[in-house]
Specification:
- It contains no helices and 15 strands.
Length: 199
């Protein structure tokens, strides 16, 4: 689990084996909010990306297992006023990042060095006046598509393969044109599904 404040927490699935109709506590959020949850194999690598354009990659073994009621430990340190916007389990593929002014890019996963948790991370995409804050990050494959969502409700679906591959310390290219006083608010990966013989 990852929170907007940069906290991460790992809890064995066995602790969720007896759910109640009203639900059970999964994490002590305090003044925070949950931004991502993923199932790992116990030896995965985690990538957190923040709205400041920084990303940190670390091994999940840096996070000890905790009970459901625990709050977790620091995953990434961020400048004041910024928050974690994405939790990704690192696998083969590329990291697609997008900013509120409609710019983005793909970057090789290998460009993100493995670090210890709790640091400031490295630049994932530049957050310039042109780009604005980072609003989305996802692990994508070459055959996937993404859905981009703007604050006025416009959806744009585009092929991942049409998006430039660039290094970490770059601003990216235009993904979606946003109107004045509008902004990109998020992205979602659409996984490639091979058509069956009966289609």
């Amino acid at each position: 689990m990852a929170t907007s404040g940069g906290t991460v927490k790992k809890t064995p699935l066995s602790q969720f084996s007896r759910p109640r109709a009203s639900g059970i506590i999964a994490i002590d959020l305090r003044q925070d909010r949950l931004v991502g949850v993923a199932i790992t194999d116990g030896n995965s690598e985690i990538l957190l990306v923040s709205s400041s354009g920084k990303g940190i990659r670390f091994n999940e073994n840096d996070v000890r297992p905790m009970g459901r009621g625990a709050a977790g430990v620091r995953g990434i340190k961020m400048p004041e006023g910024h928050e974690v916007i994405a939790l990704t389990i690192v696998r083969d593929g590329m990291i697609l990042t997008a900013t509120e002014n409609g710019y983005g890019k793909r970057t090789n996963v290998e460009d993100f060095p493995v670090q210890g948790r709790g640091g400031q991370g490295v630049i994932a995409i530049q957050t310039s006046e042109r780009n604005g804050r980072t609003v989305g990050a996802a692990l994508v494959g070459a055959e996937d598509e993404i859905m981009l969502i703007s604050s006025n409700g416009t959806l744009v679906r585009t092929a991942v393969d049409d998006i430039s591959v660039q290094g970490r310390n770059t601003q990216g290219v235009r993904l979606i044109r946003v109107e004045s006083e509008q902004r990109l608010v998020g992205l979602a990966r659409i996984a490639f599904i091979e058509a069956g013989d009966d289609d």
